[in-house]
Specification:
alpha/beta, three-stranded mixed sheet
């Protein structure tokens, strides 16, 4: 396999098709694995719990839910919404208990061989863990599938097409986050909105996201967990496309180059969307203006205004920018004549930023 760094810019579409897009067999196998765990969570997991526990829904998030899975990277996020959790605070207080129960039942299934699978359940490192991570193996699957399961408060209820949350729900979120000092802690509650934000995007944009994720993983082999969150790079890619192209068909090399150049401008980035929340509600508007005034980079989760997914450690972006400067010398960022691939014009803040920042 020719590595990304040695792939000519004009061949990036073929690189994605040949190496990054999951094939049908891979998709089917991962879907089967997810169905096994979803059925377990809905029908078996809480039957023997000390108190009656009702699962309102299990939502597939992460790359599997958004349609941006990389070939060979079989991971799935499953958010279990429980009617027993009636507030964000209750989620924080009781999630560890539910994770313990899920772990016990997984281990029971493993002993009973209820399914033709084997679970390797990772021991929890914290007293009140946020997520249960485990690996599912099956004779039917050519490879193992990694799962993250997160119990959550069902803040949104049943979503309909074009759903937009009540601003008062976000006001409640902000108030509880402030009381607990836990901004961004409850993003699993908004998994469906995060998923829908990306899922409906053009196929080629999802391919560009895959390319950026693959590049990020290359950088991560060197810097481990010292880089910004991958989700921030996914959102940065969406923003670059929205502002620079917004067309279903575009030049992949230009899109990739634009994302890399935006990383170099990380100290000025302030990115947000108004799809699910805006400045109309006074409390929410005041909070958002405070978020936008924070130290750059700022990339607000489009579904959760309390989550700055860019993180609060600029040095992580500095390391990533360091990698960008190296990669800009490689074939994937150059035309055949050796000149740099041109970029889209993309502002470091949305066009409506100045108005939103100053409006009262």
């Amino acid at each position: 396999m020719m590595g990304l760094s040695h792939t000519p810019a004009k061949s990036l579409d073929k690189f994605i098709e040949d190496h990054l897009l999951p094939n049908e067999e891979f998709r089917t196998q991962v879907k089967e694995a997810i169905d096994i765990i979803c059925t377990f969570l809905k029908e078996r997991c809480f039957q023997c719990a000390r108190h009656r526990v009702r699962v309102s829904k299990v939502v597939k998030g992460g790359s599997s839910g958004k349609g941006t899975t990389l070939r060979g990277r079989s991971d799935a996020d499953l958010v279990v919404f429980l009617t027993n959790l009636t507030s964000f605070q209750e989620q924080l207080k009781h999630r560890g208990e539910f994770i313990d129960e899920i772990r016990r039942q997984l281990e029971a299934c493993q002993r009973e061989e209820t399914f033709e699978v084997k679970f390797e359940v990772q021991k929890q490192q914290w007293e009140n863990p946020r997520v249960l991570s485990f690996v599912l193996r099956s004779p039917k699957l050519n490879q193992e599938v990694e799962f993250d399961v997160l119990p959550a408060f069902d803040a949104l209820g049943q979503l309909t097409k074009g759903y937009r949350p009540d601003p008062e729900m976000y006001v409640k979120l902000i108030q509880e986050c402030k009381e607990l000092g836990k901004e961004g802690e409850f993003s699993p509650c908004f998994t469906e909105l995060q998923r829908d934000f990306l899922k409906s995007r053009p196929t080629k944009l999802k391919s560009l996201i895959r390319l950026v994720k693959h590049w990020y993983q290359q950088c991560k082999t060197k810097w481990k967990n010292n880089l910004p969150p991958q989700y921030a790079l996914e959102l940065l890619t969406v923003y670059a496309w929205e502002q620079g192209s917004a067309e279903p068909e575009f030049n992949t090399a230009q899109g990739f180059q634009t994302v890399l150049e935006l990383i170099l401008k990380h100290q000025d980035l302030c990115i947000y969307w108004k799809k699910y929340y805006d400045f109309e509600n006074p409390t929410l508007g005041q909070y958002l203006r405070g978020q936008l005034a924070k130290r750059r980079p700022v990339i607000l989760d489009p579904a959760d205004p309390t989550g700055n997914v860019a993180g609060e450690e600029p040095q992580r972006w500095q390391l990533l920018a360091q990698e960008v400067r190296v990669w800009l010398r490689y074939s994937c960022c150059k035309n055949l004549d050796g000149t740099p691939v041109s970029t889209w014009y993309v502002p470091v803040t949305p066009p409506h930023y100045a108005y939103d920042r100053m409006a009262r």
